[in-house]
Specification:
Helices cover about 40% and strands about 10% of the residues. Strand 7 and strand 8 form a beta hairpin. The N terminus and C terminus are likely disordered.
């Protein structure tokens, strides 16, 4: 490398002490002081960005974890700040060999700030559960919508921004999505991995939400993203990590999976999500919720308050949806019947289970079931790469004196690391408490018919109807 490590650290310190007297100071409960320059305030001080205050970061998880009421607004500020720290750290350590200009820094920061402006109500529930239901398998994504909203903000508020910079910001937002552009970028590719990393999944978006969500839910996860931020290095246009930090990288993905299991896909959270999706579906015709997903001018008006709109409406057309929302308020939830983990050898060709499958597995003697009495949730929890190990896509280096990057196989580090990387969980709920027993037995019958055995661990919850709902 072109300069000594001490010189690089000194340079990093001087960058961190840059003049912020003209910036707006915000106190964040995760990162401390966050500073916004005037250029970024032009985006923050718009109704489209302020809308993020009314989108809870964890959707409906606050119904189980009361502290999880933080919004996409503070998360976006956090990603903006970490993007700034990441690019400045790289510049400080490798400024003599990598040409990072002020425009590059501002581009990465703006991408971090705006990466979530296209989210719909209740976080991922909107695009993964509601829209596919009402639009027959819609592949709409919040990343694509973010790009449209960014253009809308620039045009609507007459923000002066270089056309090339604007394009790069949008490309960075799309970098982790299915339609990623990553094979078309020829210059400074590493910059596109900082906010939303489609190459290996390590990015400041995860750094922020893992830390922020863990704190909000008072969980004791101890992943330290700062270690990776301080020691990362660009090699051949790719961000690489020290070999000795292999287990820290693994802990990033493991912590994310733990959050999915204990918070994001908590059985009670999923029950509430199923009810909200049903309510939104019932209200869609009257409120035209899905009609706004292609027009930013209408989409930005949509937020989590849509449920309150349903709840307080006196329209007869919304009665069924309103009754569902009232059931949630009274904690009269869809009742969890049971679950099982799909065997590893069955996951590749797994066929989704439907309420009809459960109904058809019912035997005589129990109250007859209808499809509308049952809800099925298929939960996938992985390390960001489905059934593949994400660490296979990450490059490491031995020390700062070498210029050779390489992958590392798990078995060279520890025999305690997992050999399989995805759980697929089938959960079944009864929409009526009096049918819990019948639905549970039918679900058991389905498993016996499909696998020749019960794949679930829990017993049929015979006493569930008499238990407290909380």
């Amino acid at each position: 490398m072109g300069t000594s490590w001490n010189e690089e650290v000194t340079s990093c310190y001087s960058l961190c002490c840059r003049d912020r007297r003209s910036s707006k100071h915000i106190r964040d409960n995760v990162h401390g002081n966050i500073y916004l320059d005037k250029f970024f305030l032009k985006f923050v001080d718009t109704e489209q960005f302020q809308r993020l205050r009314d989108l809870k970061q964890l959707g409906l998880s606050h119904m189980v974890y009361p502290g999880a009421v933080h919004s996409r607004f503070e998360h976006s500020l956090g990603v903006y700040w970490l993007a700034d720290e990441a690019v400045h750290t790289i510049k400080a350590h490798q400024g003599s060999e990598i040409s990072i200009e002020r425009n590059d820094i501002n581009t990465v920061k703006l991408a971090g700030l705006l990466h979530d402006v296209g989210h719909g109500p209740f976080s991922h529930l909107f695009e993964r559960e509601f829209l596919p239901r009402v639009l027959n398998g819609s592949e709409w994504s919040h990343e694509d919508m973010s790009v449209k909203v960014i253009d809308y903000i620039v045009d609507e508020h007459n923000i002066e921004i270089d056309a090339a910079m604007l394009k790069n910001v949008k490309d960075m937002v799309l970098a982790s999505s299915a339609n990623s552009f990553q094979n078309t970028v020829n210059e400074k590719r590493f910059l596109y991995d900082i906010v939303a990393n489609g190459r290996n999944g390590i990015d400041v978006d995860k750094f922020d939400y893992i830390e922020r969500d863990s704190r909000a839910c008072d969980l004791g996860f101890n992943f330290q993203f700062q270690r990776l931020m301080e020691t990362m290095r660009v090699m051949e246009d790719e961000i690489c990590y020290r070999a000795k930090d292999y287990l820290t990288v693994h802990k990033l993905f493991a912590t994310r999976a733990d959050l999915h299991r204990t918070v994001y896909t908590h059985a009670k959270v999923k029950a509430i999500e199923l009810m909200v999706v049903d309510a939104l579906t019932l209200a869609n015709g009257e409120l035209s919720i899905s009609a706004s997903i292609h027009e930013p001018a209408e989409f930005w008006k949509l937020d989590d308050s849509i449920v309150k709109q349903i709840e307080t409406s006196d329209k007869q057309e919304l009665k069924k949806a309103r009754d569902l929302v009232w059931r949630i308020r009274k904690r009269d939830l869809y009742q969890f019947c049971n679950e099982y983990i799909v065997p590893k050898d069955k996951q590749e060709h797994f066929k989704s289970i439907t309420p009809q499958d459960i109904v058809c597995s019912q035997k005589n003697g129990d109250p007859p079931l209808k499809e509308e009495d049952i809800a099925v949730s298929i939960v996938k929890i992985d390390l960001t790469r489905g059934r593949n190990n994400p660490l296979e896509s990450i490059k490491f280096f031995q020390d700062y004196e070498t210029d050779f990057k390489f992958p590392i196989r798990d078995e060279l580090i520890s025999h305690l690391l997992p050999s399989f990387y995805q759980d697929m969980i089938v959960r079944v709920y009864s929409k009526k408490s009096e049918l819990v027993g019948a639905v549970s037995k039918a679900f058991e019958n389905y498993q016996l018919k499909t696998y020749g055995r019960k794949a679930q661990v829990h017993d049929t919850p015979e006493k569930k109807k008499s238990r407290l709902r909380y």
